[in-house]
C-alpha cells in the first residue's frame, strides 16, 4: 500500500524533546514500513524516518532561529500535498483541520487523526462543513464533544515494544512528566509529594506563554531536594527517569485526549496514578497498571498502595495493549476500509 503521512511542522518527526503527536507519527511510519508498506512522510526537513521523507520546510518551527512564519510553512505543506496526492492509495493527516478543504476535493481516500482536545468553541461548525470527512479519535472520550462527526473508529496510541526497558524495582521517587501548565496538574503533583513524604522529580517543558505561571506559582516550590526540576528530557533520559520512579503522577485538570506519558510509564513497568478525567479510565487499569483516583486525597492513598502493583504484570499489559505494531495494524484496517469504499463508489 502506498501511504502518505502528513505531520505537523511545529516539531521534527520524531521531536528532539517534547512533542507527542510527532513522536506517535514517527512510530507509526516506521512500523508501517516494517510491515511492508511504501510510506512517504511529509514533515520538516530535520525529521528522521524509515519511510521516504518529503521535506516540506527546512526545520521544525518551534526550534527555528530566526523564527519562521507558520502560515508560510503551512502553505508549503498544502502545496506539497496537492502536487503529490494522486501518487498514494491513502493519505493520513495529523494536522487537525487545515488540510480538510484540500483533501476533500482530491480523489484520494484520506483520514484524519485528531490529536487534541475537541471541546473548543466553533469545532462543531467545522465538522458540519465536512460531513463525509473520516476522523479517527485517540480515545473514545476525546470524541464526545463532536459526536456528530464522521468517526470511523478509535485507535489508541502505541510505541515500539523495545523502546523502553522495564524496571521491576519499587522506585525511589514520584515522577511528573509533561508540560508545565496548570491543566497538567504540576501543583497537585507537588502537594501529593509533600503529603506522602516522597521526593518528586519533574521532567517538563516550560511553554513560552506559561513562563509567568512557572515563575510565580511553581518555581518558589522547587527546592532542588524534595522537589526537583530536571527540564525537558529526550527518549534516552526519559527511559531511566520513568523506570526509576515509584509511580508516575498524572493529576490532570483537563479532558486529556490520550496522555502518551501514561503508556511510556507502563512500558517502563512503572505504575500510573491519574485523576479520572478524559481518556484516563480507558488507559489505566485499576490495580494492574496503576490507580484511577478522584483527587489529591485518593492519590496520596494510592501512593501508599503501590506495593500492591505487580510491575511485571503492568509491563505485560503494555505489550498487549499499547505497542506500535498494534497501532499500525489498526490503522491499516482503517486504510483498507476507506479504499474499499472508494472502489465501491466507482462501481456504482
Q: Can you put this structure into words, describing what you see?
A:
The chain has 348 residues and is α/β, with parallel strands linked by helices. The protein has helices spanning 20-34, 70-84, 100-103, 123-129, 186-196, 211-218, 235-243, 260-267, 280-283, 296-304, 311-321, 324-347, and strands at residues 2-6, 38-44, 52-57, 90-93, 110-113, 135-137, 151-154, 174-179, 200-205, 227-229, 247-250, 272-275, 290-293. The protein has 2 domains: 2-158 and 323-347, Rossmann fold; 174-321, 3-Layer(aba) Sandwich (Rossmann fold). 36% of the residues lie in helices and 17% in strands. The longest helix has 24 residues, at 324-347. The model has no long low-confidence stretch (mean pLDDT 94). Pfam families: Glyco_transf_4 (PF13439), Glycos_transf_1 (PF00534). InterPro entries: Glyco_trans_1, Glyco_trans_4-like_N. Keywords: Transferase. Residues 18-119 form the Glycosyltransferase subfamily 4-like N-terminal domain.
Quick summary of this structure?
The protein contains 12 helices and 13 strands. It is an alpha/beta fold and 348 residues long. It is globular.
> In CATH's first tier, which class of the largest domain applies?
Alpha Beta
Number of strands: 13
| Count of individual helical segments | 12
CATH superfamily of the largest domain: Glycogen Phosphorylase B
| N-to-C SSE string, H for helix and E for strand | EHEEHEHEHEEEHEHEHEHEHEHHH
Strand content: 15-25%
User: What is the arithmetic mean of pLDDT?
Assistant: 94
Largest sheet: 7 strands, parallel
What is the molecular shape? globular
Proportion in helices:
25-40%
- End-to-end Cα distance, whole Å, is 24 Å
Any idea how many domains?
2
The CATH architecture of the largest domain is 3-Layer(aba) Sandwich
Sequence of strands across the biggest β-sheet: 3-2-1-4-5-6-7
Q: Structural class given helices, strands, pairing? A: alpha/beta
- Tell me the Rg in angstroms: 21 Å
Low-confidence stretches: none
CATH topology of the largest domain: Rossmann fold
